[in-house]
Amino acid sequence: MITNASSLTFSNLRQTFGLKLNSSDHFFDEWLNNAQTLTESELQGLDRLSQNYAYLSQEEPPLEEVVKLVVVSPLLDLAGFYQFPFLVKAEVSTNIEVTDEANAMAVQGRIDILVIQDSFWILVIESKPARLDVTAGIPQALTYLLSAPNLQSSCYGMVTNGREVLFLKCDRQQSQPQYMRSPTYRLIENTAERIQVLQGLKQIGAYISDLRS
User: Fold this and answer.
1) Which end of the chain, C or N, has fewer beta carbons within 10 A?
2) In this structure, are residues 3 and 104 in contact, taking their beta carbons and an 8 Å threshold?
């Protein structure tokens, strides 16, 4: 049986992959404690992102492709993911096969944006139209994180609807895969939280680079 990743729910992920929420992990509470202060250029870039989004959403909520262009792409640029040692790919096909005594299932999908370092998946980004709640993209993003090839390490994800952003961390080193999620950050309406989003992206990149060096 073939299933599309976009149709999976939290219940499906628990039943099929044994994935559970680890609410005791404080990674997202602590990761900004040592975050570097953003430069004036980076702050201006965030302001421009916010202004562009506000302008384009005057008539109606932006569609997913506009969210990618106006929000996701500038964030990746400001975070340094368009430069060495990172590689960015778009619309990446993925597949997970699950087999038990009763049946077999293949979960297929297409990752909106994938950031890679030396074939190591750093960040899976799932974008949704602005009219949807940002949490609607969590199950799909977690499915992609479960399909990542680096089985011995944690993978990170980001979900956004343009107005809001949340981060995910998936750990498959345990006997049962676990995931953690950040608070939901208001990217457009709150300056402080907008800054934290970019700091968080930069922290993920720095953390993985240090881990891989």
Assistant:
1) C
2) no
Is the model's pTM score more than 0.85? yes
pLDDT-flagged residues of the chain (< 70): 1-2, 96-107, 150-153, 174, 211-213
Q: What is the full DSSP assignment across 73-105?
A: HHHHHHTTTTSTT-EEEEEEEEEEEEE-SS-EE
Q: Which amino acid is at 90?
A: A
Go through the domains of the chain in sequence order and give each one's CATH number: 2-212 (3.90.1570)
3-state secondary structure of 174: coil
* pLDDT digits 0-9 by tens, 118-158: 777 888 988 888 888 899 899 989 988 888 876 556 789 99
Report the distance separating Cα 58 and Cα 124, nearest Å. 29
CA 35 → CA 29, 116, 160, distances in Å? Answer: 12, 22, 21
> What's the burial of 207, exposed, middle or buried (CB within 10 Å: 0-12/13-18/19+)?
middle
Q: Which long-range contacts (CB under 8 A, 24 or more apart) does 101-107 make?
A: 103/1, 104/1, 105/1, 105/2, 105/3, 105/16, 106/1, 106/2, 106/3, 107/2, 107/3, 107/4, 107/5, 107/8, 107/16, 107/143, 107/147
161-193 in b/e form (b: 16+ CB < 10 A) is bbbbbbbbbbbbeeeebbbbbbebbbbbeeeeb
Greatest distance between any 2 Cα atoms in the chain: 58
